[in-house]
């Protein structure tokens, strides 16, 4: 891979920051692009061309795609369910970023283009029951995705398809299912459930207020994919021969209550739970059917939720202590991932 130039849109974000670091370790030259000021990036890697730019603007997309061998388009305005449900227009505006990056990559004759879609593209009628049947790729149609964010993702999937069909572009699309891990958002309103649960439980330990608010009934079901599995999967998609969107997610299904159980066990604490039934909670059930990813790549995400959450918890402990001047103890280290 030495000498190849990889462009990562959204390189200052959670997944993008991890991807940039891994590409660098693999010998790529990396151009990392994000709209946030550099001081707000989750990770800033030495030896990388770090660019602050708004990829909704076509001229910026032209500039960053110049000379690229591979483009990884992860840039999007998004967050956890609280953000998605209350910022539909902002989420939809990401179609500008995705479309302009496709146009720029086509005109720059970039050999390979990866687009990060989401499980939010799936038909809402398939996700009404907490005892959900795992979502197959075909369940995206007939279309009834998550309003705002899901429509943006589904539209951009189609753009990738038509740029491939009409212009011969090499495009690959993965539907991410709830990615989590260290070096991501853990407070402020854009965090997702794994980070939010860690923060709330760390806060309970720090303050002695042994209570926790859970959004919804707690019986909603989800699967959560650790970041190392996500990065591994991105490469398999980019180098593989499957041109249709595929799931990229863990098939380990848990309720939100069980997620809280896991973090309580990691933290060594039990909390009194209250349930906010008026808070954003998303669909009742969502899980990844991994039949096709196993068929195409002989692989699927396999890092246990308990192991990934322990690493995530320990990182957030450090961030929380630094922000609040507290001294919450992390758990003992020693987790090794066979496929990391």
Rg value: 19 Å
Outline type: globular
Question: Which CATH class of the largest domain?
Answer: Alpha Beta
Strand order of the largest sheet: 3-2-1-4-5-6-11
β-strand amount: 15-25%
CATH topology of the largest domain: Rossmann fold
Tell me about the largest β-sheet.
7 strands, parallel
> Approximately how much helix is present in the residues?
25-40%
By CATH, the architecture of the largest domain is named 3-Layer(aba) Sandwich
Q: Structural class, from secondary structure content?
A: alpha/beta
Low-confidence stretches: none
Number of domains: 2
Question: What number is the mean pLDDT?
Answer: 94
Task: Name the CATH superfamily classification of the largest domain.
Answer: NAD(P)-binding Rossmann-like Domain
Please give the number of β-strands. Answer: 13
Helix and strand succession? Answer: EHEEHEHHHEHEEHEEEHEEHEHH
Helical stretch tally: 11
Kindly describe this structure.
The protein has two domains: 5-179 and 225-248, NAD(P)-binding Rossmann-like Domain (Rossmann fold, 3-Layer(aba) Sandwich), CATH 3.40.50; 181-223 and 252-324, UDP-galactose 4-epimerase, domain 1 (Alpha-Beta Complex), CATH 3.90.25.10. The protein is of the alpha/beta class and 340 residues long. The chain is globular and about 60 Å long. Strand 1, helix 1 (14-25) and strand 2 form a beta-alpha-beta unit. The protein has helices at 14-25, 58-65, 81-86, 88-92, 94-107, 149-167, 193-207, 227-239, 256-267, 291-297, 305-324, and strands at 5-9, 29-34, 49-52, 70-73, 112-118, 171-176, 179-180, 211-215, 221-223, 225-226, 246-248, 253-255, 272-276. The protein has eleven helices and 13 strands. The model has no long low-confidence stretch (mean pLDDT 94).
